[in-house]
Amino acid sequence: RKTNNSEGPAELWSNIAGNITRLRTKEFFDATEHPAEAEIAKALDDQGPEEALARYISLSLRSMDISVEQIAEHYHEQLVNHMAAGRIAGEKSANTLSQTLYAHVHSFFLHLGATRDYLGALIAHRIG
Model-level pTM? Predict the structure, then answer.
């Protein structure tokens, strides 16, 4: 369920990859009336580096979005638990669930680094 109508970076990069795919496969699909499943799979799998990197960037950005959602859910759950227990005086707390938060934060930075690397590879490929 999407409540925000604006497109995020992951969707924009997905659109970029999709546009590259459409341009690359247009001639094949225009020339072939009833392609076999294997022919379609081959046509779609024959990606160039720019198309593949755009798709990787999109996937990494989407993974970052998921990590942010998980971090927000964790903090929300902790806040609700503290309020239910009457601990709202600004006390710090840590428990075994903190390890889950650390994993979500680590995941965010892992995907951020991957996005940076893919974007760098795409720029390098475009420059030549």
Answer: 0.80
